[in-house]
Design a protein that fits this description.
The protein is mainly α. It has one domain: Amino acid/polyamine transporter I (Up-down Bundle), CATH 1.20.1740.10. The chain has helices at residues 17-22, 26-50, 55-79, 83-90, 92-125, 131-148, 151-176, 196-207, 216-228, 236-264, 276-291, 296-329, 346-365, 370-396, 409-436. The longest helix is centred in the N-terminal third of the chain and has 34 residues, at 92-125. It is a multi-pass membrane protein.
Length: 437
């Protein structure tokens, strides 16, 4: 029986920048899931609706989640096991809590990403098929890609797509900055008038900024997959480099998309569309306003690529998480488990089929508005974030984690403060949403 050994926290020699770039993987998959709806949709909407009034909210939302995501990135190279094994050690109630959080967001997250991807396909290729049917076809095609493909292919494609979209977005943002109102009246802690609908949007923005905290488990599972597919698994230092560069990149892109929405749509009488195809057309128009109409198809394909990479990553993450959760529920320690999940595993395939069926039911019985689907999933993530943050803090400081791999005193204080802030956000939201409304 093969036992996964903890990776060493230090390296004998510093790798070159080329070697550092080669070890990028789980962090960029994290970036791909982040840059999807939370950035292309939510950040752009924030800028279009409120200008720069939510800029500090976006920065704070990222900052308070950093410790929880960092701890998730550190855990596998520190111990050789994933976060779900750490959750098993905490008791079955933790596994039940994570399962409920996962199921509550699974269908809405996949449905929203598929709907956004389908909307972009309709706009880019001028198709007239119903969007929800295209979304279901895309889920089926993505399932086939995952069953046939491998982790290494997923990682390589994601690296390429993230770089393309980042370059395009940075250039567009630099061009539009002069058109933004930088006066003190336009930069506030919160909009001066925020109704219940606005409050719901802020909660959704924070919930999926940069990505729901339950995605921290996915980081751990992808780190394990990378180690299983590598002759030289990344060390703790390399994993942290991978995560940090990806996290900073996602924050930068979130700000860029907000600036694009503020510069090109705010206070210009543009009605923000809620349908996936209509919103996709507006999104492409942002870039056309900067680069010219000839660049529209190119930008549309780039936006489609990054949204599709998010869909691909998230559809891979859910089966991995649920399969591992199933094994941990049977109280099988991960380092003694000889079961190796692959893309042809019946549990993996069955989860993909269930996601497709769930998306069909979502489109049939719930709203088909892209923004409504995203807001629903993001609000769930907003309320459950403090619990995930607390669990990640608890497991990285546990006795079984080598002292050299545990966070220092300042990071521990930062984490505790962040958890308190998230609890405050969640309580304030619940009070305002259900008591005052």
């Amino acid at each position: 029986m093969k036992r996964t050994l903890p990776l060493q926290p230090t390296e004998a020699a510093k790798p070159s920048w080329l070697n550092q770039l080669n070890i990028l993987g789980p962090g960029l998959l994290f970036a791909a899931t982040s840059v999807g709806t939370s950035h292309l949709v939510q950040s752009t909407r924030a800028g279009a609706l409120y200008g720069l009034a939510l800029l500090l909210i976006v920065i704070v939302a990222n900052a308070v989640k950093y410790p929880a995501f960092r701890f998730a990135s550190d855990y596998f190279p520190a111990t050789g096991t994933t976060l779900l094994e750490a959750y098993r050690r905490q008791g079955r109630w933790v596994l039940v809590a994570y399962l409920l959080i996962t199921l509550s967001s699974l269908l809405f997250a996949v449905s929203a990403l598929a709907l956004m991807s389908a909307g972009l396909i309709k706009v880019v290729f001028a198709l007239t098929l119903p969007t929800h049917w295209m979304a279901l076809g895309l889920i089926a095609a993505t399932s086939a890609v995952l069953i046939i493909g491998h982790y290494n292919t997923l990682e390589r494609v994601t690296k390429f797509l993230v770089v393309i979209m980042m370059v395009c977005t940075l250039i567009a943002t630099a061009t539009i900055i002069p058109e933004i109102d930088w006066s003190s009246d336009n930069i506030q802690l919160l909009p001066t008038q925020l109704d219940i609908a606005g409050l719901m949007f802020v909660a959704a923005l924070i919930g999926w900024m940069p990505v729901p905290l339950d995605a921290s488990v996915w980081q751990s599972l992808w780190a394990k997959a990378k180690a299983d597919n590598s002759e030289h698994p990344p060390t703790l230092g390399q994993s942290r480099f991978d995560f940090n560069i990806s996290f900073v990149g996602t924050l930068l892109l979130a700000i860029c998309f907000m600036l694009l929405g503020a510069g090109l749509m705010h206070d210009k009488g543009i009605e923000l569309q809620s349908g996936s195809a209509a919103f996709s057309a507006q999104l492409i128009s942002l870039y056309e306003a900067v680069f010219g109409s000839a660049a529209g198809p190119v930008i549309g394909i780039a936006a489609l690529a990054i949204i599709y990479s998010s869909l691909l990553a998230i559809m891979d993450a859910f089966p991995r998480a649920l399969s591992s959760l199933h094994r941990r529920w049977q109280n099988i320690p991960e380092d003694q488990d000889d079961h190796i999940l692959n893309e042809s595993d019946p549990f993996y395939v069955g989860t993909l089929v269930a996601m497709g069926a769930g998306a069909a039911l979502t489109y049939q019985f719930f709203m088909t508005s892209l923004t409504s689907l995203i807001d629903m999933a993001a609000t769930i993530a907003f309320i459950t974030a403090p619990l995930i943050a607390y669990l990640n803090h608890k497991v990285i400081t546990a006795d079984h984690v080598p002292k050299a791999c545990q966070p220092g005193g300042m990071m521990v204080m930062y984490s505790r403060f962040s958890i308190a802030v998230m609890i405050g956000f969640a309580c304030a939201y619940l009070y305002l949403r259900f008591w005052l409304s």
